[in-house]
Amino acid sequence: MDDVAQGWLQHRMVLDDLLALTDNDYVDYRPWDGAMSLGELAIHIVTSTDMFIKGIKQGEFSAPATEDNFKTINDVRTIVQRYTDQTREDIKSIFDFQLKGYILFNGVRAPGTYWLSNAIDHEIHHKGQLFTYVRMTGAQNLPSFMRQPNEV
């Protein structure tokens, strides 16, 4: 699971890079009516992955944590860092039997391996949206979609 955590972290660290290109003027930025704000999207990414990983470990899913007490981009960065640290440890502590165990979620019964892959794909999907948000705020030099192994 160390390798899985490392591969996931290569994607997650780009979230930090994107948030570093953002300032307080854009924490509430919404590219269209009804969209999550930039801050909400970043927090959705980390709380959703946390929910999936904890669900795999527990054998059942609970609703993701609510983290809506942020005002500044630094608040968002702090929340992201806290979840990154916890999720890294949680991924590394998943056992083989937890990956093989079946878990029901949204009407789908699938093994932990499926939900782990789904969690990472979900995060990558929303990170792609965040790239668009950040670019729309005027950022010019966006990072690569993932860090190289020696950059984590």
UniProtKB/TrEMBL annotation:
Keywords: Metal-binding. This is DinB family protein. A divalent metal cation binds at residues 44, 122, 126. It comes from Lentibacillus cibarius. Gene3D superfamilies: dinb family like domain. It comes from the Bacteria. One of its GO terms (molecular function) is metal ion binding. Signal peptide: none annotated. Belongs to the DinB family.
